[in-house]
Automatic annotation (TrEMBL):
Gene3D superfamilies found in the cross-reference section: 1.20.1260.10
Domain of life: Bacteria
Protein name: Rubrerythrin diiron-binding domain-containing protein
Length: 152
């Protein structure tokens, strides 16, 4: 099913994704037994909160012409799907949590790539390319933080 969305809708969708991801990580923190996994989940929840805030700031600082740009966007590739598949009754280990984070991250990278490809305006294309690069940098930070926790 396809429907039209504006750039602002995509940014709000992404902000909600980050908030829901932070909530999921907090819920998992309550259920895992490993202190190292709790630290990783706590780090990731705080990270998702920061990214959600930065997406809102990004939206607030963007030009109205960029925000009102229209897209034909399909929800068939729902970025929220992996969040719904998480078993909250399971005791996740470090690798499970890292795999989950990478799965969620890849969904977001795909979304940004799709939005960049579909963008009609060069300014909107640049915005989604910028978000894509920023998300790739965030993925690298997560990998470094996880490696640091493994060294503890």
């Amino acid at each position: 099913m396809m429907r039209f969305e504006q750039t602002v809708d995509v940014l709000e969708h992404v902000g909600l994704f980050h908030r829901k991801t932070a909530e999921l990580y907090r819920a998992l923190t309550e259920r895992v037994s490993s202190p190292r996994v709790k630290m990783l989940l706590d780090y990731m929840a705080r990270h998702e909160d920061r990214v959600a805030l930065s997406i809102r700031e990004y939206r607030d600082e963007s030009r109205p012409q960029v925000l009102s740009s229209w897209f034909k966007y399909t929800h068939d590739e729902d970025i929220f799907a992996p969040l719904k598949e998480v078993d909250l009754d399971r005791d996740y280990d470090f690798d499970d949590v890292l795999d989950l984070a990478l799965t969620l991250d890849s969904k977001l990278l795909e979304l940004y790539q799709d939005m960049s490809t579909q963008a009609v305006s060069p300014e909107v294309k640049d915005m989604f390319n910028s978000l894509l690069l920023r998300e790739m940098e965030e993925k690298q930070k997560l990998m470094r933080a996880a490696a640091g926790l493994l060294d503890l």
